[in-house]
Amino acid sequence: xxxxxxxxxxxxxxxxxxxxxxxxxxxxxxxxxxxxxxxxxxxxxxxxxxxxxxxxxxxxxxxxxxxxxxxxxxxxxxxxxxxxxxxxxxxxxxxxxxxxxxxxxxxxxxxxxxxxxxxxxxxxxxxxxxxxxxxxxxxxxxxxxxxxxxxxxxxxxxxxxxxxxxxxxxxxxxxxxxxxxxxxxxxxxxxxxxxxxxxxxxxxxxxxxxxxxxxxxxxxxxxxxxxxxxxxxxxxxxxxxxxxxxxxxxxxxxxxxxxxxxxxxxxxxxxxxxxxxxxxxxxxxxxxxxxxxxxxxxxxxxxxxxxxxxxxxxxxxxxxxxxxxxxxxxxxxxxxxxxxxxxxxxxxxxxxxxxxxxxxxxxxxxxxxxxxxxxxxxxxxxxxxxxxxxxxxxxxxxxxxxxxxxxxxxxxxxxxxxxxxxxxxxxxxxxxxxxxxxxxxxxxxxxxxxxxxxxxxxxxxxxxxxxxxxxx
Length: 472
Ligand SMILES: [Ca+2]
Ligand SMILES: [Ca+2]
Ligand SMILES: [Ca+2]
Ligand SMILES: [Ca+2]
Prior knowledge:
alpha/beta; Alpha-Beta Plaits; binds calcium ion; Rossmann fold
């Protein structure tokens, strides 16, 4: 059992040989089967367009607030020309525009006016301020704030896990600070996150563009890239032994969506790392269960891919089951050596992992990050496992909207839903710094949580993970 498999020499025959030895445990996804809302039909409207570029000052536009001195000065000028009649705020603003050689584009209110003109520039802004003509003159910025995405559920405010301004679903800032992080990076399109799960419904319009495609495999019935798998274009199905890791459940597609759903396409949701690629490795079947043998092989598949030059940076394992197993521990250790972060769900028994360990989350390895689930109000979810020593961080995991089969979306709850947030953050970190070691990624994520006092004593870093703080 403790014997290492050698990925480079592995063949299917050898898998079958080891299979009975490894199949010691049944894996189950850590997802709560709670009451769920109705399926949202496809074809819902696109969200409103919001300018993406928060830093762009609109050319030729100036937002001006009049000083009281200017007001009285301009009022006097107006009165002289108009038989002592007092000007309206708009007439004052027009007069000001004339003085500046600009025209009124919009009267915002009595104090503030939007002026337009080809000659508006920053020098002009400064001059108008310094000569006291106006109290405040600023460029008119495209409004963006942190509402940086038009993904429909985001615009509805349902994706509190990404950004929460507070309300019924969630408290303010109980989120992973995704829009702030996206100012820094949305992830590298060459970076791959392996999702060991029920597979992936890769036709989903919020997923399709971020499906990993094997560049070294052709549809010819041959193993072109020599990894032991024939025609593995998009990953592998370790349950049915074929090259179609399709999701015949919902779980894997939901997890993948939280990691890397396409952002700003007007549809559905956005992943935490919406520009990285998903590699589906199916280890759980349609009943949502699988075995550790398949999981070991899937991890080895990802490691081999990494060694062959594909940038597999993270493995997300929203599953668990069975006892400590040398073969699995060694596979995850090989992933660490290959520079791959291994994110695992802490489990949904509401129990203490320190006393009743859960695997693979429980392997005490440098690259393993064990993730607990939080409610929208920053409490540990009642189902979530914890562990002062063996659980590392917490992430949103209660009522998380993400993609499922077809083009549908559903809110799921579970540590399965929490882990992919951390996988996404790890992917963003590795996008920015490809050589960052898994242990550094782990400590960056742990050291940058937003503290939550209710989590004290429940995990190593008692707080909610923040993509932005980790990147900063
Ligand atoms: Ca926030
Ligand atoms: Ca192959
Ligand atoms: Ca082939
Ligand atoms: Ca989307």
